[in-house]
């Protein structure tokens, strides 16, 4: 009888256990599939260009110190450790971080910076002068595409050992000895929950916490707890402790940032401290580990006192376990919590991220950008971007205080690298925070007098005109579409005969339209298209005064061939895309097809340097008396738009101000947009345009009254650039016998 009962009992037990084993088998598949596949959907990270510090560039000591602090460098007694800087009364030293980008691996380097007569001098520790130093690219934001997680993925070797030790000491002291669950912890939790009459304590190991975060919901039921236990055992069966702790470090939830959840210690380090995880101190590790118990409760931004108390509790645990000496403990608990200054990334870089997303949408689908943790390297210059955003906000606010009718004034700004055409900064609004409407791309408005430099270049290209050539500023009448059009100067006056450089510098409309008529309006239209205007337009006389409608971005592209003297024509945004393993996926190379000679473009640019000296940009020259730069102001009919283009040795910048409702304003290009450019330029250490000209062009001193080269003793003269072959053939000694 016993054998009969045992036999059938055993058979029935096997039959009854089939669903359980099937369930375990299914759980095993879930564990392996998620852990060995793509564990996380991590949005693509967007990075700035490296910040290049060049010997000889204009720099102030306090500006470099501010830049190092903004990029997460800590100042201390010395700069021996990577990520640290030091300063004396006259010098700054910094141990610059290594980094990887699409150009390869860049080693960390320790450099000494001094400042001689306002110029930067860079030296190695042995005293050798260095031509340049680089601060690593900064992450400026993410391309979410609907993703709501912020995370940076680390490998095991990238996790600081002290952080692992602190986490294990506080959260799971038996981590290296159990098989995924702690029987003593479970027993303790059962006793507490039984005595309290509800589930108050979980007894979870780090492995169980990882399973709960990666695979399960947060519901508190015994069924879910059983699932957690089984999956923890399976996870420990398949994978090493190193793999599990690495996954935990990347998965753990640590804060809610608006609609985005902050996961992983690396992302938390950047968010709270503004530095890489491997540069944190013990007390900072303790703060982050303390947050694991209650991310909202111990958030140092919201509850600094509570977070500090929790940090000190963690430090006390380390002292009790012999991991901290009494001396170190007493020192660390006195440390204040030093969080990174918070700047809303999306408010400063939101307009630039729009541009990045627009370019990448042609090559990558939204799901890839939102989940594959790509590294996107751009040309944005963080100093230029912050300076442009701040200048726009300050100056528009100041104009609004001066005139109540300007309270609704808006603006946009595009800053490009003068040589390469890379977009260094873009501002789409005068508002403090990112608005979602990027006027640098979307505000298509008449460009006014910004059309004049390309128009004058059309005349120079014929070979019949030079900057010295004369034109009469007189009243004109044109029949357009059956109606009579009579252009006017801004001051409603005529100014007689003058040189071309004077007419452009002073932005005289009548002289400009007269010149366009002489060379042919269609020729001007062809030049605009060859310079990069892709928008369809029909050329007519009013176009010569800027009836052409373009966005600020399109204006920047129009001026890029002139600013670069033929070295670039298209504007660049994204430099390259790499995957999360630093493999190059795509490089973006600009097409630079400029159908004009370098000499013509350089002579045009040189002519634009007269505008700050004698023309409508004299306020900018007064602000920078020693700076050689090119400029052009622009104002449209009824003063509805205020424009300014400024070109220095480093940047070509386009500024637009206007009202979204297209109403008349009380400002011109000189009294509005120019102020924004001056403010911006004061904060980016401007360098002068080079005085050298390319082959095929030369600069000569020419008499104002006669088309003759002037000797050094001549007083009534001006310096002008010429395309070779168009310069004066005669010369004057200015020596008059009595």
Automatic annotation (TrEMBL):
Residues 147-317 form the Glycosyl transferase family domain. The active site is at 171 (proton donor), 449 (acyl-ester intermediate). Residues 411-649 form the Penicillin-binding protein transpeptidase domain. Keywords: Antibiotic resistance, Carboxypeptidase, Cell membrane, Cell shape, Cell wall biogenesis/degradation, Glycosyltransferase, Hydrolase, Membrane, Multifunctional enzyme, Peptidoglycan synthesis, Protease, Transferase, Transmembrane, Transmembrane helix. One of its GO terms (biological process) is cell wall organization. Its main location: membrane. SUPFAM superfamilies: beta-lactamase/transpeptidase-like, Lysozyme-like. GO terms for cellular component: outer membrane-bounded periplasmic space; peptidoglycan-based cell wall; plasma membrane. The chain crosses the membrane at residues 5-26. GO terms for molecular function: penicillin binding; peptidoglycan glycosyltransferase activity; serine-type D-Ala-D-Ala carboxypeptidase activity. InterPro entries: Beta-lactam/transpept-like, Glyco_trans_51, Glycosyltr_51/Transpeptidase, Lysozyme-like_dom_sf, PBP_1b, PBP_transglycosylase, PCN-bd_Tpept, UB2H. Pathway: Cell wall biogenesis; peptidoglycan biosynthesis. It is found in: Cell membrane. It comes from the Bacteria. Residues 53-131 form the Bifunctional transglycosylase second domain. It catalyses: [GlcNAc-(1->4)-Mur2Ac(oyl-L-Ala-gamma-D-Glu-L-Lys-D-Ala-D-Ala)](n)-di-trans,octa-cis-undecaprenyl diphosphate + beta-D-GlcNAc-(1->4)-Mur2Ac(oyl-L-Ala-gamma-D-Glu-L-Lys-D-Ala-D-Ala)-di-trans,octa-cis-undecaprenyl diphosphate = [GlcNAc-(1->4)-Mur2Ac(oyl-L-Ala-gamma-D-Glu-L-Lys-D-Ala-D-Ala)](n+1)-di-trans,octa-cis-undecaprenyl diphosphate + di-trans,octa-cis-undecaprenyl diphosphate + H(+); Preferential cleavage: (Ac)2-L-Lys-D-Ala-|-D-Ala. Also transpeptidation of peptidyl-alanyl moieties that are N-acyl substituents of D-alanine. PANTHER family: BINDING PROTEIN TRANSPEPTIDASE, PUTATIVE-RELATED (PTHR32282), PENICILLIN-BINDING PROTEIN 1B (PTHR32282:SF11). Cell wall formation. Synthesis of cross-linked peptidoglycan from the lipid intermediates. The enzyme has a penicillin-insensitive transglycosylase N-terminal domain (formation of linear glycan strands) and a penicillin-sensitive transpeptidase C-terminal domain (cross-linking of the peptide subunits). In the C-terminal section; belongs to the transpeptidase family. This is Penicillin-binding protein 1B. It comes from Marinomonas foliarum.
